[in-house]
Amino acid sequence: MKYFIFIAVTFFIALPAQARPVSYPTGWTVMLMNDKDSNSSHIHYSPTAKYSVGWKHEYMRDSKANIDALQVNNLIKRWNKKGEQANFYLKSGVGVAYDDGEFEPAAFTGIALDWETRRYFTSYENHLLYAGDIDKHITHKARVGIAPYIGNYGDLHTWLMLQTDYDAGADDSFSVTPLVRFFKGNSLFEAGYNFDEALQVNFIQRF
């Protein structure tokens, strides 16, 4: 219960903070994510260029449970330099988890950091979830990437990436996934194959 209260307080403190949404002001974003641990759908609206508010549904494979939650993304800090950019985000949510007729309050929070140039990319994020007796976990994810070519504005851009995941509570606590990212305009698609023989497919569309 203390875990839930702490995460919920963090969520509501973050709500009015200055933040950068994934989308542009007044824009909508649809995100569909699928990997060896879960599949999820997330739609959010960006009232301004400060934050986004949306709804997320996630199915977790290990616990075979579902979560529906209100999620807010905030930008804590952005660094802009010539030829490079870095961001520090807080992503939090509150909602309900359910499994076979059992319902529990659920809350999650986590930070996300990224640094990139037009050629190189690195990122790290974690995710702390508390959902009563249904699920509790902390996960970590890191990526490195390189662009094999530098495209112009409006071109199809390609990134070759390597992702690592760590979850101390999972049967397979550490995993590695090579993947490729394509994006053009407001559309982004990623596909990879985990060394544990699991397919990863992500799609993001902005409107």
Summed up, what is this model?
The chain has 207 residues and is mostly beta strands. It contains 1 helix and 12 strands.
Describe the structure.
By secondary structure, the protein is mainly beta. It has one domain: Beta Barrel (Porin). It has one helix and twelve strands. The protein has one helix at residues 2-14, and strands at 28-34, 38-45, 51-60, 65-81, 84-99, 102-116, 120-131, 135-146, 157-167, 174-184, 187-193, 199-206. Strands 1-2-3-4-5-6-7-8-9-10-11-12 form a twelve-stranded antiparallel β-barrel. The radius of gyration is 17 Å and the shape is globular. The termini are far apart.
Tell me, briefly, the overall form: globular
CATH class wording: Mainly Beta
CATH superfamily: monomeric porin ompg
| SS field, number of helical segments | 1
The parts where pLDDT drops under 50 for at least 5 residues are 2-21
Count of beta strands = 12
Strand arrangement, largest sheet? 1-2-3-4-5-6-7-8-9-10-11-12
Q: For the terminal residues, how far apart are their CA atoms?
A: 38 Å
Helices, strands, pairings?
Elements (H helix, E strand, L loop, with lengths): L1 H13 L13 E7 L3 E8 L5 E10 L4 E17 L2 E16 L2 E15 L3 E12 L3 E12 L10 E11 L6 E11 L2 E7 L5 E8 L1
Antiparallel strand pairs: 1-2, 1-12, 2-3, 3-4, 4-5, 5-6, 6-7, 7-8, 8-9, 9-10, 10-11, 11-12
Q: Which descriptors would you attach to this protein?
A:
1 helix, 6% helix, Porin, 207 residues, 12-stranded antiparallel beta barrel, globular, mainly beta
